[in-house]
Q: What sequence folds into this?
């Protein structure tokens, strides 16, 4: 082979692989396949500090102000450098005035009381002060350093930091970090001041959020503020990035808040009405639900029925699953107020019962997971397959939990959705998801009798239904 | 900290005695304790509180003037900005940060350069012009807005009471 030929084929090889690589990237782009995809970074406070300091340094270099003023400007403007630089170029005085760095009117030569001998007194403590032991901000309000530090102490004890103002009457000029820190004598207070200021900066930063987990110091960074799931890498809590509460797709943050408030108000009634047990519709034996699956089989008469509607399970095929859907009374507008109230309660209870039921199922399925682990152990000990062979059962249980969680959160969404084709479509998809989840749950609970291929097929169906629903309806 | 507070309060007391503003008398309840003052406020002329002499007490914190004092009327009051127990709720008695009533930002807040005199003058103008948007006494605010005659009648009764006069 000549050198020339060699080169040629090398190029060919590269070209072939680059193409392959491109296609691969395209294929795994998670945003296209996963409607819940959300890129976040979990940062420690040192990392956040570094990130903030980078912005501060950039701004301080580009508009030539001290880092401390740059920090204040960024804090006031939601860390939007472009906006600040543009505002600065346009009218730097206005920018500094609206950020409370400069007073609206130029300072008077001296606002403190002049005494006969030319010595001035501090207007707060009324003690004499000299230029050495006094200080002022851009507004020119002169106070003795002792009063300044006492003022900062009082403010910090009350939880203020970035918002500490000048002591002057109705003066809103803010004290920047490099003015406050040298005047704070106690290390404990300096620490507190910096800690409070840090929280203020994180709160004003549109791309940062504190992890709501108990005692968790992680700050989550995301490019956009969206109602997406965040998994904290440190404390493992899961939450919605936008509202910081439990993740709630496909329902949006506001609807979820309304729903939870409503549930807190009304759920006592709901608890009273929906008892924890039901009677078998065929033999009327009292049944307590002990698994997550809504497809019940009476242990007495072997009748298959649906826990939700108590109807025969045979009618719950995937094309005919209707018990997630609430049927509104079409003549309700003509009924009396009393009947309307009853109808409203009935409607709420319908959704609440299902929401609550899935929440209970999720808990019961945690027990199923423990049982699966035990069974895998038994099987491995008995020599039927290795531990790795049975991993798919754990995957199935995890998928079931994820799907049921989404399904649970579809009920508040459906409750507030207005009737119409969109609601029809939503409830159709919800019913489909519900049916497939129950199938999966049934198959997992009876894993020994289910063929592995069949179960994995079911997993695939359920996840597709879930992502379809989320793609079509998730908001925020 | 109390030393600087004491010095400020003594100076303020001296100034209030030498140049008392019209309709206001104020000073420590007893000279042993400068952190508790008594004040007498004369109802402003031309208002429903005209001629009344309203007693109040002021309690100063040890870090005065960095933190504001608290003020409470010790007579019966019926006013949108005074709680039923007599506590006064106006912007000048609140630090810039805390905002229990949602004041507009233009309202004057406490700052260490404010003084007892400024507080009492603010209270006089509060008596003349209630702020019914941030009310401490909702019933009074409602009556002030909707039934001024009834409000004026109650005010007149309170004025007579402070002067120990029988009902008219």
A:
């Amino acid at each position: 082979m000549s050198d020339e030929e060699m080169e040629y084929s090398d190029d060919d090889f590269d070209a072939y692989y680059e193409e392959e690589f491109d296609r691969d990237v395209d294929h795994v782009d998670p945003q296209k396949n996963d409607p819940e995809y959300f890129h976040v970074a979990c940062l420690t406070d040192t990392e956040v500090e570094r990130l903030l300091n980078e912005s501060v340094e950039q701004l301080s270099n580009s508009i030539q102000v001290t880092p401390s003023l740059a920090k204040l400007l960024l804090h006031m403007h939601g860390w939007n450098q472009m906006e600040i630089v543009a505002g600065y170029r346009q009218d730097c005085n206005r920018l500094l005035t609206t950020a409370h760095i400069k007073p609206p009117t130029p300072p008077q030569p001296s606002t403190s009381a002049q005494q006969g001998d030319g010595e001035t007194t501090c207007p707060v403590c009324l003690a004499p002060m000299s230029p050495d032991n006094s200080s002022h901000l851009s507004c020119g309000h002169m106070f003795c350093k002792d009063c300044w530090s006492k003022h900062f102490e009082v403010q910090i004890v009350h939880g203020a930091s970035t918002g500490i103002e000048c002591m002057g009457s109705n003066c809103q000029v803010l004290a920047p970090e490099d003015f406050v820190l040298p005047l704070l004598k106690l290390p404990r207070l300096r620490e507190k001041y910096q800690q409070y200021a840090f929280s203020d900066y994180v709160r004003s930063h549109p791309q940062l959020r504190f992890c709501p987990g108990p005692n968790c110091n992680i700050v989550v960074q995301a490019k956009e503020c969206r109602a997406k799931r965040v998994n904290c890498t440190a404390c493992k809590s899961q939450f919605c990035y936008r509202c910081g509460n439990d993740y709630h797709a496909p329902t949006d943050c506001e609807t979820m808040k309304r729903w939870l408030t409503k549930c807190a108000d009304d759920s006592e009634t709901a608890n009273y009405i929906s008892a924890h047990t039901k009677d078998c519709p065929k033999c009327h034996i009292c049944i307590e639900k002990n698994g997550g699956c809504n497809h019940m089989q009476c242990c007495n008469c072997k009748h298959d029925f649906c826990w939700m509607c108590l109807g025969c399970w045979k009618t719950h095929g995937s094309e005919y699953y209707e018990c997630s859907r609430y049927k509104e009374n079409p003549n309700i507008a003509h009924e009396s107020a009393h009947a309307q109230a009853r109808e409203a309660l009935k409607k709420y209870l319908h959704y609440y019962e299902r929401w609550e039921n899935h929440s209970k199922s999720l808990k019961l399925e945690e027990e199923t997971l423990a049982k699966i682990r035990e069974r895998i152990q038994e099987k491995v000990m008995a020599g039927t397959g290795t531990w790795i062979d049975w991993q798919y059962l754990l995957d199935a249980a995890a998928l079931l939990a994820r799907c049921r969680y989404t399904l649970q959160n579809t009920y508040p969404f459906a409750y507030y959705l207005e009737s119409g084709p969109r609601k029809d479509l939503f409830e159709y998809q919800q019913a489909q998801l519900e049916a497939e989840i129950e199938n999966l749950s049934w198959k997992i609970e009876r894993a020994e009798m289910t063929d592995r291929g069949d179960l994995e097929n079911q997993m695939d169906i359920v996840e597709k239904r879930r992502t379809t629903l989320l793609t079509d309806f998730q908001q925020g | 900290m109390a030393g600087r507070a004491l010095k400020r309060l003594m100076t303020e007391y001296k100034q209030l005695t030498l140049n008392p503003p019209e309709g206001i008398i104020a000073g420590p309840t007893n000279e042993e304790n400068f952190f508790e003052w008594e004040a007498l406020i004369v109802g402003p002329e031309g208002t429903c509180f005209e001629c009344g002499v309203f007693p109040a007490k002021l309690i100063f914190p040890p870090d005065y003037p960095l933190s504001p004092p608290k003020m409470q009327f010790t007579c019966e009051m019926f006013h949108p900005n005074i709680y039923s127990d007599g506590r006064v709720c106006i912007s000048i008695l609140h630090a810039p940060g805390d905002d229990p009533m949602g004041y507009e930002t233009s309202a004057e807040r406490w700052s260490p350069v404010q003084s007892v005199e400024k507080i009492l003058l603010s209270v006089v103008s509060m008596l003349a012009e209630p702020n019914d948007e941030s009310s401490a006494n909702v019933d009074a605010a409602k009556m002030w807005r909707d039934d001024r005659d009834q409000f004026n009648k109650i005010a007149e009764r309170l004025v007579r009471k402070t002067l120990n006069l029988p009902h008219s």
The interface with chain A takes residues 1, 4, 7-8, 11, 63, 65-67, 95-98, 108-109, 111-114 of chain B (CB under 8 Å). The radius of gyration of chain B is 16 Å. Chain B has one domain: 4-163.
